[in-house]
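Fold it.
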Amino acid sequence: MRIQVETTQYDREEHIFTAFLDPYMKFSSGLFSSHETSFENSVIEMLDFLLDSAQISNGARVLEIGTGWGCLIKRLKERFPHATYTGVSPSAAQITYVREHVDQQAPIHVCAFELAEVQGPFDAIFLSGTFCHLQDKFLQLERIFNLLAEGGRLIIEDSFFRSRQAMEVLRECSARGEVQTAMFGWAELMPLSSLLDISESIGFHLVSCRDFTDDYERTGKEWIRRLAKSALSYPAKKDMLFYLRLANNGWHRNAYCYALTFERPRRVDMPSVLELVNKEA
């Protein structure tokens, strides 16, 4: 399989992101539990929601596919200092940032997940804003399933097309795709129904699905406000503002944001439905 990995803003411009992100440097949705929730607290609440959804405890074995700027490992170490963390990221700039600002000993595979030789089992695997970047999603979800311990959990926080029709319309919009690729590399969104079909056929059990579209829209507005007020110079500021406004304009119209929790079921020695039917017959 040919893996398509482009150089993007992630590898060039750390200071662009520090101009508008929170102290955890989370470049995906926050969780605003009330109108009074601050932008900074929304990020902590979201990270805690993800960790709690995975039922993390001290000693847990955690894999993060796409480390970003280190928000998850930072919060993980604060709450569960004895958890074991492994990361995968193709961005040398982000890995350098993580090791300089979060954990200098962080074990991170410097490559795309598709090329990473990762050894399980893991109690939890996270893809926060990175599922869309996986190529051959069925194959990679099978790998993830096999990397999980029985009872282990997969957390996906990402954007999904509102419908198959919206997906087809947006795929015809070449300008939007070119902006996405230039800024953040190859990505492929799908409708939520497609992910559910794939995960079910692989053997995952869906534990929960929560809609964060309104939260992400509010997060995006805060990013735009902070970036517009920042001292970041042009053209970097202009280019990022254009992308953020374009992306934030799509919520509810074209895309939704969900956080999903899947579990690898534990083996249960029970007769199959067919065996039960034959027995009754």
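DSSP finds eleven helices and seven strands in the chain.
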